[in-house]
Write the structure tokens for this entry.
Amino acid sequence: MTMPLTIRMHEADNVAIVANDGGLPAGTALPGGPTLAEHVPQAHKVALADIPEGAAVVRYNVPIGYAIRAIPAGSWVHEKLLHMPEARSLEGLPIATVKPPALPPLTGYTFEGYRNADGSVGTRNILAITETVQCVAGVTEFAVQRIKAELLPKYPQVDDVVALAHTYGCGVAIDAPDAVIPIRTLRNISLNPNFGGEVMVVSLGCEKLQPERLLPPGAIPLVDERTLQEAPLDVVCLQDEAHVGFMSMVESVMRQAEKHLERLNRRRRETVPASELVVGVQCGGSDAFSGVTANPAVGFCTDLLVRAGATVMFSEVTEVRDGIDQLTARAATPDVAAAMVREMAWYDAYLSQGRVDRSANTTPGNKKGGLSNIVEKAMGSIVKSGSAPISGVVAPGEKARQKGLLYAATPASDFICGTLQVAAGMNLHVFTTGRGTPYGLAEVPVIKVATRSDLARRWHDLMDVNAGRIADGDATIESLGWEMFHLMLDVASGRKKTWAEHWKLANALVLFNPAPVT
């Protein structure tokens, strides 16, 4: 008979989640607890005591909902039995009240990276071709495939060539106030540390987002600080009269690309401190194990990275909105707390304009994985941030400009969040998942972390880390956190490739565009 395994996050919780593969059948007696009144699927909640109608259902020592009817002990507790709490007001929040003791710095940890002229460090050596408008995507993609086949083998020090394709640039209200978000996003993606400062642009010619608007003077890092010489903007304009036919356009892109490949190929990795890491952490296809295994281990690793002087960004506005009081309390200063509140309020208004409330975040897959609502999901998402003070806030599309733990205000959509973290300057990505997703980015290496051993076994050639070992009793949050820390150094150094890199999983960039379409 299978030993029943349940996980209770806090002694005050009146529910626990079932850890056994396949769940537990009715009649199973929980050690020290009730007998199950019905089958409870894996990752779903079971009532540990009678919960009266209207009473709080508590997980993480937080009311995640209120019972619509009486729930007897041993019952399966799911979203249809819960009334979701109201959203936490953005007024009267605790401000910079949590002052954790300073942890000793971690010194001596290094990786092999590529130093850039602007002082940033890349973990990969990639030629990125920026597109000003979606209209050029077909030509650029055709050219990139030829570059990979015909040119890239000649330049072995270059890891890849990627087209920064998107669906923006024309047919939009380019002067609308919120148009600044997609424009600065694409600008800062073009300057990501993994691209070595080699900026190359493909333009159509008639688009609203002209190259000089996308990358104005001063945007590209200086080639020579002493002479204040800026790298010239390298643009291939497809409407130029010199282009006669499709292949003429393609060959023009290839000629310009080869100049950049030659320079990138002269670069070599060098030993740099771990403080040069800029890590984005994110979760997608979450389940109830996300906040038990993978995200807490990532949170422990986040603390290690901060102690090493690195930059770590956590994100996803709607996935942390219901824990805003926890975040403002951890703000390093009142100004940081005010910036978080400002970003949350902006997004509240954005959702309100679309007549969407926060409950829309929780997906059918999240619910199938045991997450009843966004409140429960938020509690499990926040733990990726660890325990360090939050030292800064990055608005959508902006570049991160300080070290430590940062809140990057992004939508929760996997691909928009990843795109905005690339724009913020991340050079390494960590993505946790419980339900599973073949998410990947061409711009930065992505370390995929499974929350459950079942997922890690089934998707053995997609998941880099199995955090389900924590639930199985084969690892601890701390041991897995250290394991991920060392894995990050190896991946950043190019000593190891992630499964996403192996399969060349590269989801398209998705620019966050709240401006109207014309």
